Amino acid sequence: MQNLSPRHVKTEEASRLGVISGWYSTKVSGTFVSGPHDTETDCLRKIAEINPPPVPVKKRVG
């Protein structure tokens, strides 16, 4: 499981990095995983798609 988070890249940083300004999902290391996304909500939606929350395990009674 990857720990991804949203990150906004402004125009100045985007031109320095050679990417388009926008929201990106990033690893803890700072590596871009997806993007650019128009909004933080779109970015979070993609993070949920890439890295869905774990399915809870039902405990047995007995």
Keywords:
single chain; 62 residues; alpha+beta; three-stranded antiparallel β-sheet; elongated
Notes on the protein architecture:
The protein has 62 residues and is of the alpha+beta class. The chain has one domain. 29% of the residues lie in helices and 26% in strands. The chain has helices at residues 11-17, 40-50, and strands spanning 5-9, 22-26, 32-37. A three-stranded antiparallel beta sheet has the order 1-2-3. A hairpin with a 5-residue loop joins strand 2 and strand 3. The longest helix is centred in the last third of the chain and has 11 residues, at 40-50. It is elongated.
Summed up, what is this model?
This protein is of the alpha+beta class.
Radius of gyration: 16 Å
Could you describe the largest sheet, including whether it forms a barrel? 3 strands, antiparallel
Strand content: 25-35%
Whole-Å distance between the termini? Answer: 31 Å
The helix-strand sequence is: EHEEH
What's the topology here?
Elements: E1 5-9, H1 11-17, E2 22-26, E3 32-37, H2 40-50
Antiparallel strand pairs: 1-2, 2-3
